[in-house]
């Protein structure tokens, strides 16, 4: 039985569905501190859980005989900079609760990391798995802390800790949630609604990106990989790398009228400028056979189709 904490964010629902398809509809418990949409509540077990409430989290783990814990609870980069104290509590104190419970109950633990775990002194093109990191956001600092704590507990106590550094993840199912790469989701909605997108990054800002289905598949494959095949506890995974102007040009192959204006936001632009422009994921490809299915062309085609379908279902006009 798996527990997915912070499961109502961009990644949890899709990951739970993929695992439920493989292991059964009752095999994953989603949890969060928000009320789930009706379709999520109907799709499988859901419980309220706050990662800052150690006692309640322990009860959930013990009562449901949890063996895998997936820890998605976090404040993202731009939101975290706006509320550092809250980000510190959720991203670090919440992580420590999860690490302690995993050790106490012999759980296998997956904790995602991020492109934001790198900083301006990191190699940028490409960024390898092992290098100087030194991020300059509380989100990035908390993720490096999580990577190192998990690796430490693995080597000292044998904790089965696994971590993937995600690039920007592009999905139609959840609205942008305060990340620096969120423009790459919003641009598709704007292209089909108003035909105009105002981008908060410069047109030449190149960042690693990934379609959400590749992200889910990478996570499940990584969780299923025998421990003896892993040479690291934290891996980069990559799919593509593009700029706002490049994704806009690809969208214009389908929607020639799309207009994009650029009004860089100083906070997000500074964050983006400190991040890698590409990931080196050669270790993931070698150790457990990681390979993405979506490039930029496939991503754009799929997102436009998915956003158009979603807007039509919800009764919105589509241009």
TrEMBL record:
Residues 5-238 form the NAD-dependent epimerase/dehydratase domain. SUPFAM superfamilies: NAD(P)-binding Rossmann-fold domains. InterPro entries: Epimerase_deHydtase, NAD(P)-bd_dom_sf, NAD(P)_epim/dehydratase. It comes from the Eukaryota. This is NAD-dependent epimerase/dehydratase domain-containing protein. It comes from Ilyodon furcidens (goldbreast splitfin). The lineage of its organism: Eukaryota, Metazoa, Chordata, Craniata, Vertebrata.
């Amino acid at each position: 039985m798996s527990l997915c904490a912070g499961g109502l964010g961009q990644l949890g629902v899709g990951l739970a569905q993929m695992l439920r398809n493989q292991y059964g509809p009752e095999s994953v418990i989603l949890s969060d501190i928000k009320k789930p949409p009706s379709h999520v509540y109907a799709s499988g077990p859901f419980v309220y859980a706050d990662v800052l409430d150690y006692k309640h989290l322990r009860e959930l783990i013990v009562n449901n005989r949890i063996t895998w814990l997936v820890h998605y609870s976090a404040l993202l980069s731009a939101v975290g900079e706006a509320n550092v104290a809250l980000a510190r509590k959720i991203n670090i104190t919440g992580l420590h609760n999860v690490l302690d419970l995993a050790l106490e109950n012999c759980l296998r633990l997956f904790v995602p990391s991020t492109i934001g775990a790198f900083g301006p002194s990191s190699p940028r093109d490409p960024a390898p798995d092992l290098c100087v990191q030194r991020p300059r956001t509380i989100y990035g600092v908390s993720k490096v802390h999580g990577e190192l704590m998990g690796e430490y507990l693995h080597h000292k106590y044998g904790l089965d800790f696994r971590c993937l550094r995600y690039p920007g993840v592009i999905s139609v199912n959840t609205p942008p949630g305060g990340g620096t790469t969120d423009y790459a989701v919003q641009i598709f909605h704007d292209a089909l609604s108003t035909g105009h997108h105002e981008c908060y990054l410069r047109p030449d800002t190149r960042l690693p990106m990934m379609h959400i289905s590749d992200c889910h598949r990478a996570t499940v494959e990584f969780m299923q990989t025998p421990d003896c095949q892993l040479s690291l506890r934290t891996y980069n995974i990559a799919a593509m790398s593009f700029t706002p102007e490049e994704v806009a040009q690809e969208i214009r192959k389908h929607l020639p009228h799309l207009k994009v204006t650029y009004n860089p936001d100083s906070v997000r632009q500074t964050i983006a400028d400190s991040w890698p422009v590409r990931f080196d994921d050669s270790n993931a490809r070698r150790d457990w056979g990681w390979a993405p299915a979506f490039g930029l062309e496939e991503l754009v085609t799929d997102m436009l189709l998915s956003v158009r379908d979603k807007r039509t279902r919800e009764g919105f006009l589509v241009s």
